[in-house]
Automatic annotation (TrEMBL):
Source domain of life: Bacteria
Protein's organism: Vreelandella sulfidaeris
Keyword Hydrolase set for record: no
Protein family membership: Belongs to the LysR transcriptional regulatory family.
Span of domain HTH lysR-type: 1-57
Record GO terms (molecular function): DNA-binding transcription factor activity; transcription cis-regulatory region binding
InterPro entries hit by this protein: LysR_HTH_N, LysR_subst-bd, WH-like_DNA-bd_sf, WH_DNA-bd_sf
PANTHER family associated with the record: HTH-TYPE TRANSCRIPTIONAL REGULATOR, LYSR FAMILY TRANSCRIPTIONAL REGULATOR
Protein name: LysR family transcriptional regulator
């Protein structure tokens, strides 16, 4: 049943049997067969089948949470039986900027306090990481705050507050942000990211028309591009 539970988690994340199969290396028919077998073994309907989408039923959502717990325990089973101390794994999602700033010190303190735990850091965009937490694939994620309310079974904890900064090449003078943004080529923070959406909302709310030349997700790349003029 372990294999079927892993497939269940993939379907929950990807939304369709076909997409889940592509992710874990199975055909759509194989995924469908595994889910049918799992439903028969559990005696419940896991999905509401509407077209190609595979939406979890209420019982399916409950089963998904239990599957995450079981798979986490299963991953530590070998260590316990071999006489080694059981290791608890914590799966943490983190956007790129966090991995270079807050995360290293936080992980060092965590491992000093909880020496019997190991951690796995999963990189990704904020939206991707939220979905993985919601699907039970991650225990937590450090991201930019979403511009929408989280599901009732997810909890948000602020860790830091950072203002957005407007940066210009050193040879550009002036301190009026609107004039600078409208007169100079603008490198946009990727609108697919939560941070980029906040920037886009700021521009629209302030009726600021920029001369966009590039859209980038990586903050360090933006800084280097601005430095190049």
């Amino acid at each position: 049943m372990i294999r079927e539970l892993k497939t269940l988690m993939a379907v929950a994340q990807e939304g369709t049997f076909a997409a889940a199969g592509n992710k874990i290396g199975l055909t759509q028919a194989a995924v469908s067969a595994q889910m049918k077998r799992l439903e028969e073994e559990l005696g419940i309907a896991l999905f509401e089948r509407k077209g190609r989408a595979a939406t979890l039923t209420q019982r399916g959502q409950e089963t998904l949470k239990q599957a995450h717990v079981l798979l986490t325990l299963y991953s530590t089973l070998g260590a316990s039986l071999s006489g080694q101390p059981a290791t608890h794994r914590v799966n943490i999602g983190a956007i790129a900027s966090i991995q270079r700033s807050l995360l290293p010190d936080a992980l060092a303190r965590f491992h000093h306090t909880y020496s019997d735990c190991c951690t796995r850091v999963v990189p990704g965009l904020s939206m991707e990481l939220v979905n993985q937490v919601d699907a039970g694939e991650l225990d937590m994620a450090i991201i930019i705050r979403p511009p929408f309310s989280l599901h009732s079974d997810l909890r948000w904890t602020p860790l830091a507050h950072e203002p957005f900064r407007l940066i210009v090449p050193q040879h550009i003078s002036g301190d009026q942000w609107r004039e600078l943004m409208t007169s100079q080529p603008f490198i946009r923070y990727d609108r697919a990211s939560f941070g980029g959406r906040q920037v886009d909302r700021f521009l629209r709310n302030n009726h600021c028309n920029v001369r966009e030349v590039c859209e980038v997700d990586e903050l360090e790349a933006i800084v280097k591009l601005v430095a190049k003029g």
